[in-house]
Amino acid sequence: MTIQGVYLEPVAIQSDEFKDFAARFQHRLVSLYEVNYAELVCGYLGDAAEWDSTAYYHGHFFSPLVTTATHFARNRSSKIYASNFLSIFICIARKIQSSDKGTHYYYVEDDSEILPVFIAIVRV
Questions:
Q1: Which positions ≥6 away from 19 have C-beta within 8 Å?
Q2: pLDDT in tens, 9-39
Q3: Cβ–Cβ contacts within 10 Å for residue 9, how many?
Q4: DSSP 42
């Protein structure tokens, strides 16, 4: 995923959006940041209809299941450093391909086909 011309905006803990994602992450959500793109970036993203509106969770593989993304992020992170927190991208995607790793494991051919919308910091 290429992230250029963006800024992060914290999502308030009291907001419905935060509460919704907190429930999805089984109340392990510590922080949620919305990814806002500059107009320059939005120009090359193409038509909004090309993008699947499903929320995909990206933890080195992406999936519509929170548990799959969290599992991959946890396995990957434990090999690099020890931490009580994981960062998970909440994305939309297009041109989605199924992986041979099993059901609910997906990938895209090109990083430009997946777009982060939120970054979640989750307690392990």
A1: none
A2: 999 999 999 999 999 989 999 999 998 877 6
A3: 11
A4: H
User: How many residues belong to the chain?
Assistant: 124
Cα–Cα dist 114/95, whole Å: 9
Specify the DSSP class assigned to residue 11.
P
Beta pairing partners, 6: 37
- Every domain of the chain and the residues it spans: 7-36, 46-106
Predicted confidence band of residue 88 (pLDDT cuts 50, 70, 90): confident
Q: φ and ψ at 119, to 5 degrees?
A: -120, 125
Residue 35 backbone dihedrals phi, psi, to 5 degrees = -90, 115
Q: Give the pair of three-digit tokens for residue 84.
A: 């009580």
The DSSP code for 27 is: T
Q: Per the structure block, which two tokens stand in for 58?
A: 């990206």
Output phi, psi for 71, to 5 deg.
-60, -50
Residue 43: the pLDDT is 52
